[in-house]
Specification:
The protein has 269 residues and is α/β, with parallel strands linked by helices. It has one domain: Vaccinia Virus protein VP39 (Rossmann fold, 3-Layer(aba) Sandwich), CATH 3.40.50. It has a seven-stranded mixed beta sheet, with helices on both faces. Strand 1, helix 5 and strand 2 form a beta-alpha-beta unit. The radius of gyration is 19 Å and the shape is globular. Bound molecules: S-adenosylmethionine.
Length: 269
Amino acid sequence: MTYFASDFKDVDATNAVQPFIQCLKLQQSLESYHRYKHKTFEEMHLVAGASVLEVGCGIGEDAISLAKRVGSTGKVTAVDRSQAMLNQAIASTENLALPIEFVLADAQQLPFTDHTFDAARVDRTLQHIDHPQLAIAEMARVVRPGGWVVAVEPDWETFVVDSGQRALTRQLLNLWCDTFPSGWIGRQLFRYFRQAGLTELQVNPETIVLTQFELADQILAFVQTARKAEACGIASQSAIQEWLNELQHFDQSQQFFCSFTIFIVSGKK
Ligand SMILES: C[S@@+](CC[C@H](N)C(=O)[O-])C[C@H]1O[C@@H](n2cnc3c(N)ncnc32)[C@H](O)[C@@H]1O
């Protein structure tokens, strides 16, 4: 069964793209995501006619937004390492007559020459990469001098859940965080941007709050994480069930609360 913390790293290896597509569509539909994405677009300093790179484009929604911003004289190059994701992105953009090219590529080794783009952006993708500093260095390499690199990524140790069971909650949230190839990328972005030689660095945190258990579970896999914890012996079946029951009880009385912080970091080449 798909587990987003580990499986977004190689979607094609799972042979089941639909859960990933549904998860991304759901997130794209949320107002809080619209808000932070808008901020990242602003930080790219785009003008009509600009050539931009979108890394880890997923279902292509952000490539569409970027293409509308740069207009018909501009160009968006959108890369992803999953052919299944690219197929979905191509299908949803083919009738839109927008200047978007989709390219199968790994963010850690971009197939573009130096100084190709006016700006590059990555959104919730570095968390799934083993060596995210390589991807940031690659984005800095392919952007022209004076151009902008923008990344927005969560730090999963900012993930908080209101529960009466503090110790078990910590264990489960650590399990979620540590299952990502780069669960701490949020706090590491600043250092990696510096190491890539980017200047005028800006860091803007945005906190996403979810107060409906079902919605949170579809994005943040509460039930799966709890079952994984049970399978690896972190807690007994009864302790896990009690933890889940409490969250569902909170939900029924409109008291469920969880949140996590994502960091928008931008830098100029
Ligand atoms: C959580 S999704 C985010 C998609 C999109 N940026 C968004 O905001 O909806 C992560 C995406 O990164 C892609 N991905 C994972 N590892 C990658 C890599 N090494 N290089 C390029 N893309 C990668 C996945 O296939 C997936 O489409």
